Amino acid sequence: MKIYLKSVGIGVLLLVLACKEQPKEKQGTSQEQQERSATTATVSEAWVENRVEKAKTRLQRSEAGKVVWKAMEAHGGLKKWYGNGALSFRFDYQPLDGSTRRNSYQTIDTWSNKARHTSITDSTAHFGWTGKVAWVLAKDSTAFAYDTKFWALTPYYFLGQPFVLDGEGVNLELLPQETYKDRLNNVVRVTFDPGTGDAPDDYYILYFDAESHLLSVIRYIVSYPAYFKDGGHLPEKFMDVIGSQTVEGIVFPTGYKTHWLVEKNLPGAYITKIDVSDVSFDPELKSDYFETPEEAVVIE
Prior knowledge:
- There is one protein chain.
- The chain has 300 residues and is an alpha+beta fold.
- The protein is built from six helices and 17 strands.
- It has one domain: outer membrane lipoprotein receptor (LolB), chain A (Clam).
- It starts with a strand and ends with a strand.
């Protein structure tokens, strides 16, 4: 996935895992900062309206964009997505090969892609992304036995689909339809402009049910440069979107099943189980929630 998508933003995609999946960075503007509440991590209704109108105009310019816009509407609408407040959820990433489990509660500022995670087993252990720096605060150095900078926004770029595709630097291409589980799907390939986020070579291939317009599959690669210094990437993965839960009008999955992709664009070996729970929105979250704690260690 990407880390920090410019806008609000997959890098799913990636867009996706967790796989790789570093989100893409989104930089706030001075105007946006002026439209934020002085005490809560919220933006004005005018900011939301402007953001939604720009996204709709951009997406309506292509057939692939129209598919994505319909998906946003089917999942509850971009206006509600931004208007609900900060997003919180538990994301339990469980590799079936016994490698490191990543299981945390996390809260995301969907307007500017900031994140704060809390350990499931130790409520005093946290890590996050301020929009500029990554940090960790934990008494035990083994509290988070994985790359927390990479993981700060990665889960969000899965759970935030298709809403995280609304920004600049995102390129959409309509591919031939695919049938999966006896359902016809519209398929959109997502790529990123050079310089967009930390992993601009990532891509996502998203399946949207042709009738309901809901997301059913996320295919993706992980090309995070810190992991692939020679410019390579992992083989493509196939993430099956599992279940459905509606929170404050927004439709989310209850989990994912990740496989290696095999011939004919089919899922192969089942490699990762992901559970999503405790989903909520908080319009009253304090504005300083995502700042680096004084005792935290900044990650370079």
